[in-house]
Amino acid sequence: MKKMVLLATFVLSVFHYSQNYAGLNDLLEKIERKNKKLKDASDYSIANKKFVLMEDFEDHSERHILEFGADNKITLIELIDDKSTGQSFSNIFSGDYIRKRNAISVRANYLEGKQIATPIIYSLYLMNANDIWYLKDINNSKRWIENNNLIKKNK
């Protein structure tokens, strides 16, 4: 009797989870369709390009400038403007990056020439919308827009 109850419970749970699996499968298909529309950026060179991220907080504002070198080196400039005092602070990080198609992994492990204990790491995805290239942070969805596009907008 116990075996029959366990078997029935197992069969019902498999049936229940298979319904959820069908929903997950549909969701994955939607994601695949969306990703197929994304442009492959393998031809696009990020060497000697700058990308900018701007953030505004209540007490300060931050500008991050990420410059990619031709030899897989990066320079990350962090500019912090304190709103209460009007002072500006900057940090200059350096490190390297690895790129595989649209995915870019950035590691900044030097602060003004001195190695730091905990490096700054970004996992970015290179994207294009309306001929504007930008990097999207995979972890928090922040967007780094290419510097040339900022200059075009200001003119």
Provide a descriptive summary of the structure in words.
- By secondary structure, the protein is of the alpha+beta class.
- It folds into 2 domains: 1-37; 50-154.
- It is built from 2 helices and 8 strands; from the N terminus they run H-E-E-E-E-E-E-E-E-H.
- The protein has helices spanning 2-36, 147-154, and strands at residues 50-56, 60-68, 73-82, 88-100, 103-111, 114-129, 132-137, 143-146.
- It has an 8-stranded antiparallel beta barrel with strand order 1-2-3-4-5-6-7-8.
- The longest helix has 35 residues, at 2-36.
What are the main properties of this structure?
155 residues, alpha+beta, 2 domains, 8-stranded antiparallel beta barrel
Question: Summarize this, please?
Answer:
The protein has 2 helices and 8 strands; from the N terminus they run H-E-E-E-E-E-E-E-E-H.
